[in-house]
């Protein structure tokens, strides 16, 4: 009887320990980083640039195309570059934001470039406050589509859409320039959208 008791007790302990064994959850594969809109990118860079100069203002920002990240939705980009100015330092400095490590000295996250001398606005562009960027690039793209972009896209399918943010003299607020093409110089159609109000300003072709 005593042997039977020990055998039954051992079996019971074995069953209990088996039932208490935690199940190991399958680890979900990491999702690839996703391209982001211009407003999100410039805010991330502005946060870092403020530690360089507390009085920083935005001079311009533009998309950077990456062959490693194809099929990016219009209104977003895998990499952005912004230039900020500091009057107290008499300097300007460019920053990049990228979702991956890439060629061309692009690093994941925000990366600051070299400082350059800056003595004030030159030409038609001028720096502006970060608070003026109230409209995001996806919304600017939708406006540009309504103002001729959709028709141009049908006639010229497959063209990349790039973005340039700047403050030019002819408009009261900074503007998003929605560009069908890889750059301003190679494009024959683009649309200006007010970055503060979202209103259509002008189309160039």
What report would you give on this structure?
26% of the residues lie in helices and 29% in strands. With 205 residues, the protein is α+β, with helices and mostly antiparallel strands. The strands form two sheets. An eight-stranded antiparallel sheet has the order 6-5-4-2-7-8-9-10. A hairpin with a 4-residue loop joins strand 4 and strand 5. The longest helix is centred in the N-terminal third of the chain and has 19 residues, at 2-20. Residues 1-21 have low confidence and may be disordered.
Proportion of strand residues = 25-35%
Radius of gyration: 27 Å
* Overall pLDDT score: 88
Biggest beta sheet summary? 8 strands, antiparallel
Could you tell me the number of beta strands?
10
The quaternary state of the protein chains shown equals single chain
Helix content: 25-40%
**Could you list the spans in which at least 5 consecutive residues all have pLDDT below 50?**
1-21
Strand order of the largest sheet: 6-5-4-2-7-8-9-10
Please identify the structural class as seen in this structure: alpha+beta
Specify the overall morphology. globular
Number of helices: 3
The overall number of domains is 1
N- and C-termini, Cα separation? 99 Å
């Amino acid at each position: 009887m005593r042997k039977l008791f020990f055998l039954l007790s051992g079996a019971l302990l074995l069953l209990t320990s088996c039932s208490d064994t935690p199940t190991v959850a399958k680890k979900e594969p990491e999702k690839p980083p996703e391209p982001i809109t211009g407003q999100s990118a410039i805010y991330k860079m502005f946060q870092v640039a403020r530690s360089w100069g507390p009085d920083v203002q935005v001079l311009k920002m533009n998309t950077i195309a990456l062959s490693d990240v194809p099929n990016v939705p219009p209104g977003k980009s895998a990499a952005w570059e912004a230039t900020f100015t500091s009057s107290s330092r008499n300097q300007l400095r460019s920053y990049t934001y990228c979702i991956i490590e890439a060629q061309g000295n692009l690093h994941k996250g925000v990366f600051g470039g070299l400082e350059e001398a800056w003595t004030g606005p030159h030409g038609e562009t001028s720096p502006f406050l970060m608070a003026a960027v109230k409209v995001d690039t996806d919304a600017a793209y939708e406006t540009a589509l309504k103002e001729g972009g959709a028709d141009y896209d049908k006639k010229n399918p497959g063209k990349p859409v790039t973005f340039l943010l700047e403050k030019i003299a002819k408009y009261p607020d900074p503007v998003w320039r929605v560009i069908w093409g890889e750059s301003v110089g190679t494009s024959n159609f683009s649309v200006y959208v007010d970055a503060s109000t979202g209103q259509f300003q002008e189309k160039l072709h």
